[in-house]
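Archive entry: two folds, one per protein. Generate the first.
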Amino acid sequence: MTRTPAYEPTIDQHDTWMVVNPVQGCNRACRYCYLQDLNLTSVKPAVLASPQETLTQLLAHRYYHPDLVLALYTCTDALATRTAAAHLIETLQVLAASPVRNPVCLITKCHIPYDVIDAITQARQAGLPVLVYLSYSGLGPDVEKGIRHDQLRANFPRLHAADIPIIHYWRPFLPQNSRPEVMEQVLDLASQFATCSVTVGTKVKPTAMQQITGLWPELADSTSDPRSADSVWPRTAWEWLSDLPTRYAHHPIYQTNSCALAYVLDRPDRAGVLNTPTCRNANRCPAAQRERCRPSAPLHPPLTLAAVDRHMERLGHSNLAYTIAEDTRTIRFTTPLPLRDRHNLAQVLAATVRAPRHPDERYWAGRVTGAQPLLIDTP
């Protein structure tokens, strides 16, 4: 039976960044992948837009703003096939030759060949800030099907030698990779070469409960709905990360992607994380970065009705009622607003956005919407 792929928009907005997806579908088959219920795993990647068409769509999109981070190829792994890698190389060249100077992220579990490393280096030399997320979690080939973990691990020293910034993407946490010996093996490598790590539990889409419980059966018995959580964590991993061995004291570790990006890019916090419980208790952030973030709030332009109205009109929601709390930079809606629009509004205006969740929402809630982590005891 032929599976019909459900392609995502080529240009879209997620909770941390704008996403740019001119190639979609992955020939790998990671069992937790959020593309699985879209029929976009174990398939040949499809090219939906050329690099030049991608740039045109990006600059014309209602979500585009020069301050936002761009994540490339989140609906595939751009290093999984030579066709996708060639598309990536050309896209980097097109972006570097354009006015775009947004930070650009590439996320991968696959071998990064030297022609791609060269393309990243050339783009960075041209003024396009490119960094690489290496998604290394300690999971095995029974979960991350088709991934060559030896090649993934070899990326760390190769990118480091090329002076390309690395963020270690440590996700998802499942019972299989939450034993202390596995976590130490992962961090022993990553802390040598990555600028920082981002730890993420398991994200559960509203449509993916059966998929995830097949991988983590205890979630079916949870008294809390995993789909309403920011992410789900084995308690063993959460507690180990809360009390790290001292040999990792020099290595920053974040639970909030926006904070990791701010640290690597030498920027202050724009996501309202400063002084929250996550900032104080979960993120292992260098003192210099906290000092960078501390004076940032007064430097943001005032959050005015006119500024919100302008952006809401750009998003196509000019008639929705809202209130503003200027002291906390919070915009509050009484009617549902799609998550992608909420995320874009929050990132462009450096504000917190609260709105009722739409009943047809297909994405996980995310901590920026107020959702919290869920801890699960596992055998």
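Generate the second and append.
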Amino acid sequence: MKRFMGLIVSIALLVAMLAGCAGTPKASSSESPNPASSVTEADKSGKNEQEMKKWPRTYVDTLGRKVVLEKKPEKVALLFFRNFEHLFLLGESPVAATDINVLGEWESLAPYKNNAIADLGSITSPNIEKLLGVDPDLIIVVSSRYESYGDKLEQIAPVITVDSNENNWQGALREYGIIFGKEQKAEDEIARIEAFVAKSREQLKAYNDKSFGVTMLGDKQYWAYTTQFVFNKDSGLGLNPPSHYVDMSKKGEQISQEGLAVMNPDYMFVADLGGSSQKLYSYLKNLESEPVWNSLDAVKNKHMYPLDSSIAAGGPLGIELGVKTIVKNVLSQ
């Protein structure tokens, strides 16, 4: 019996010792900081310090005006609809803007159409009273409009003027990178889109013997466009325009239906001149009864395709979508 009791006592002592050992690491871990969380907090602190070092900064705008940005702009009013894409691509969104109808019209902007953006009306006559109510910390306006109402804007918030940059989306994106302190983000997106265009150019090399045209349609209007992302041999898709195409040094020219027939491209991409996809399909429906239109090789061979009207703005998202649309339709033949 004594041996039995001794055995029980020994077992009890052993269990107690093991329990004590098992509890030691737990107590130790609660007292010591988690190395992983410490690194994360340090990283966050480092990023915050880097962000603070970016401000204040002085930005010289298109008109040569020096604008002091005390901190990263958070409430931006954009009075130039062509630059929606640049802000969105950088992960920014204006709190107010003119011509916000394009958010519902352009497929390139579809992911952002429900963003909370106050409607300031038209770029030609923005609603100054409504803009005042928004209380922006920065206003961005295209330089050609500054003389019209720039002095009124200056009374509300700092104003930065930008160039139209119709054929230089990279330069425009870099400028917005500076404004928002996102220079590296801008460079990353430029590299990504340029690589995508270069890859697409290689995919379309097999069509070097074909001609392509870009036509903007209006109410009995035809504009032959020289969109650079379509025709430029170095930075675009390098597609060949028809032999009788318009002057490639210009953005485009208005032509007649007969003039379009003389060009007669093998492939033709069309978009609405006013930026409305609904109107585009209405124009195309009306053209179904036009003999000259139906004589075009692209129409007869079903090589005529719609493009999103955002291509006319020359922004990065519109170009990316335009390239995807062209490649998809041409390679599907």
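Annotation attached to the second fold: Residues 2-31 form the longest helix (30 residues). Residues 1-37 have pLDDT under 50 and may be disordered.
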